[in-house]
Hints:
Elements: E1 3-6, H1 9-20, H2 24-31, H3 35-42, H4 50-79, H5 93-97, E2 100-103
Antiparallel strand pairs: 1-2
Helix pairs in contact: 1-3, 1-4
Amino acid sequence: MAKTRQLTQGEAVRLMRERANIRLVDLAKMTGLSQGLLSLVENGEHVLPADSLKRVDAALKKALKERMAEEEHAAKNLIGEDAKISIAMPASSAQFVNMTVGKG
């Protein structure tokens, strides 16, 4: 049976950033936080306070929405404009934190 564990804040931030296809330096520019600080967060060496996490969350949600719109556009180009496409995204990085990851 697979063991599960909760994602850390850093794992959730990295997962969302990678899904949004943005670089750490770009996330730093979007949030006003330093690239070094965000690197520490992603590596589990620092936990962001709530106000900073909200800025990161807002930037990642915006980037994810833009990426999803690009993917939807590409899919419609591939299969036709009349296609109905539904892509779901988490409401916030907190939902990623609450995801479990199977191991084993």
